[in-house]
Amino acid sequence: MRLYPRLAVNSIKSNRQLYFPYILMSSGIIAIFYIMAALSESEEIKACKGGHSLVTLLGYSIYIIAFFALLFMFFTNSFVIKRRTKEFGLYNILGMNKKNIAGIMVWETLIMYASSLAAGLVMGILFSELAQAGLVKLAQGTNRLGFSISLFGVKYAVLVFAGIFFLIFLNSVRVVSFSNPAQMIRAENLGEKPPRANYVIGILGLVLIAAAYVLVLTINNRDSNMVILNFVWAVFPVIAGTYFIFIAGSVLLCKIMQKNGNYYYNKKHFVSVANMAFRMKRSGAGLATIAILTTMVLIMLTSTICFYSQIQSVLDSDFPRQNVFVGTFGIEDDSRKITLAEAEDLAERTSSLIDGEDLVWYSKINFVANGANGEYKITGKNERHDAFDKNDSVFSLIPLSTYNRITGNNISLADDEVLLSSLSLNKFKSDSLSFGDGRDYKVKPIEFDLYSHGRYYIDNYLVVMNDVSSYEASASGITSFVMFNKDMSDKEISALGKKIYNEFKSDEKEGETPYRLNFECDSRDVMEEEFISIYTGLIFLGIVLTILFLAATILLMYYRQISEGHEDYGKYRILKNIGMTAKDIRTTVDSMTLITFLSPLVAAIVHTSVAMYFVYQFMILQGMFDIRSLFLTAATVYLAFTVVYFICYKLTSRSYLKIVNGI
Amino acid sequence: MSYLEVQNLKKIYTTRFGGNKVQALTNVSFNVEQGEFVAIMGESGSGKTTLLNLVAALDKATEGSIVLDGTDLAAIGDSKAASFRRDNLGFVFQEFNLLDTFTVEDNILLPLVLQGKKASDIKPKAKEVANRLGIADLLGKYPFEISGGQKQRAACARALITDPKIILADEPTGALDSRSSDELLNQFASINAQGQTILMVTHSVKAASRASRVLFIKDGVIFHQLYKGESSDTAFYQKISDTLTMLTTGGDIA
Ligand SMILES: Nc1ncnc2c1ncn2[C@@H]1O[C@H](COP(=O)(O)OP(=O)(O)OP(=O)(O)O)[C@@H](O)[C@H]1O
Ligand SMILES: [Mg+2]
Description:
The structure holds two protein chains of two kinds. By secondary structure, chain A is an alpha+beta fold. Among the domains of chain A are: 1-190, no CATH class; 323-486, no CATH class. Chain A has 17 helices and ten strands. Chain A has helices spanning 3-14, 16-39, 43-46, 51-93, 98-138, 151-177, 181-186, 199-217, 224-259, 261-264, 270-318, 340-352, 400-407, 490-506, 524-578, 582-621, 627-660; strands at 323-331, 357-372, 375-378, 392-399, 417-422, 432-434, 440-445, 459-465, 477-485, 515-523. In chain A, strands 1, 2, 3, 4, 5, 6, 7, 8, 9 and 10 form a ten-stranded mixed β-sheet that branches. In chain A, strand 2 and strand 3 form a beta hairpin. In chain A, helix 1 (3-14) crosses helix 5 (98-138), helix 2 packs antiparallel against helix 15 and helix 15 (524-578) packs parallel to helix 17 (627-660). Chain B has eight helices and ten strands. In chain B, the strands form two sheets. A six-stranded mixed β-sheet of chain B has the order 6-7-8-3-9-10, with helices on both faces. A four-stranded antiparallel β-sheet of chain B has the order 2-1-4-5, covered by helices on one side. The longest helix of chain B has 17 residues, at 233-249. Chain B is globular. Chain B starts with a strand and ends in a 5-residue tail after the last helix. At the A-B interface, helix 10, helix 11, helix 15 and helix 16 of A face helix 2, strand 6, helix 3 and helix 4 of B. Bound molecules: adenosine-5'-triphosphate and magnesium ion. Magnesium ion binds at residues 48-49 of chain B.
């Protein structure tokens, strides 16, 4: 049976316009897959800060890549097969049965698998060092020179893509075996009416998207559950709505343009609008898919880059010192509340056990109060566990003595005076303050960030007054902080924690209710490692998915251009005969392709911009407040993406013009 | 000076990589007067379509000249060729060449839209031409919804709407049954009677017999021509088919 391989080679050669880009894409995907697999067991990455969790993330992302590879290759292959049904139909009529055709397809698949795999692995091996260097840089580790081939990567690439190609082969066989030869030969355009504009679906699409936007734009960071939930709930209507609008709305739009005589009967629009009226319904789904994928990529890139860029500022505010001990105290049986004086005593004793530089300790009273314009009522909510209302704020109170001790000042206040510092985004706007206990304070604003105040995503004010003891009873919590600078390993920190714990344990006396001690020891280095490994992994995955997705988009665009070019070839020949000039043809083609290219991009940018509101709220939850960086990142990502997208468009739209002009 | 003058036309096709050369036209000369209805006949491959393409400025002649109403086609650049066609020529093809994305009306309007005319000015014109060809009630339909004969009449309407100097038709009845062919030829005869110049390539003796003159082309040259003069359709039909028989058997014309 030497015939099949020969026929397979021939048909790949004669369809190189279809197969060359396809092989190029699959080898690209294989290269990426190999790189991810190789990195997931790279020693150099393990050696980075948080390298172990990064490697785990990379290990998971191999599955994600495999999934997208299957999706994209399936999608593009169905295009290829569709374009070839005519050829298969001809084989069929020339006396080959479907088994013979499947025989040819087996060989085609094998050839493509082998060539993509070979090219992909070569590319992957060449580029994996580069990718590794980039990742190590992102993870702020040190690069070592070296060259290695990951057997693990090779093995998995061979196996996974064998599976993917097999599935794709099965699908091709399915497509071919379900069509009859006459159909196959006529496969392309039979006479059909332009699709009707479906108002119901179009309007439904608009309503869904509007509802989803409202859901996102009413997100309120005071309710941390709502932030995520609303966004998740918004995702599905947006996807459905985008499909509906692209499928129905575009037809509607063409209909409206056709109704407007002066617009429609203009040589710039006439041919393109009529063409699109026919085509939009069919290509609408493809365009919507591009729009949705673009949206995902844009959101992912923007948010991860923006988060990554703010890691240091979050750490700065949470960790004014390298190490922070946070203690919340209580009495074991809740028989009474602990007093501030007791808490301060515990904090001071803790600090005496530590030798480190820049040692600071203090205790503060927290409560949640509801109100505005300086008039508040204490709510009794716990700021760590309870959901907030719209007008809730967190107040942190410290005595003037503590303030003077930490700052080294020697300020004195009258009993009805307080110093107030706004710790969150919203500044305190009134010059008086009351908590509904009959006392009115005059407010002296100060700029003082009490180290490690802990981030609340609602308004948070620090209040300094002479005597805070009258608020002890209504406090939702008394928290102590001890912090200092010292390079410490994980082990040393937990050893220190043990030491402190034992100190207080030994201090318990018979007959007295013991304190409930709750100390958390955090180190900036540990936290930083964690942050960097998470966000590095996410950014890297984001970039890889973007590349993958762009490759798929380019290919989809390209195939659409070719198949539409072939469909339209006859049309433009007629138009030329009737007297359409080459220039008119070019403007018609340009305006048509531009609209079909531009629409998914515009949709994606609109979606992403709305989603940025969610990202912002989410950022605030994470204690990141730098909205400018979000704007900047989003703008940069949009711009870069648009540029790349347009290059893709230029590259592929030329192929259409060439085919149409019969070159 | 005739309306259309074709002089010593020669066309050699060269395949893209130099290789084979095909001499499609050797030396063709003829004139067409304004208002004439000329049919061109000849065996398959004798160069009829090539000749028509040259007259339509769709292709460039290797040698020789074509002058339409005082305009030398060779002097028209590639970029102007399309607009020259649009403004001066009307086409009717064997395979109708209607665009299926347009309604019949929009198909008919197409050349005028390409000329940059206003919607309000051109719509009545489409009605008028459609009326003349008896397809006024089909204007809103799409090409796939109408019969072959109706399609060909729509194609004629599209050719006529610009008031072209000359109608070029390449086997316009080739895809039609005999009744539709007759109807179409009646249309041609009647628009010709109104003064329209027509140049038609055909394989059908019956179609050719409706013309006022028939040119026979063989091996790339005009081999013979017949004038209808005062003879009836049937008499002319007989003369044409005699000539064709002689052409194919290789005999000489008396
Ligand atoms: N684009 C081309 N390139 C090369 N040779 C061509 C080309 N077009 C036509 N020919 C050749 O020129 C000769 C004349 O072709 P033409 O199409 O003019 O014939 P025709 O008289 O119209 O035939 P038919 O009656 O079958 O339509 C033929 O031998 C044909 O093979
Ligand atoms: Mg021909």
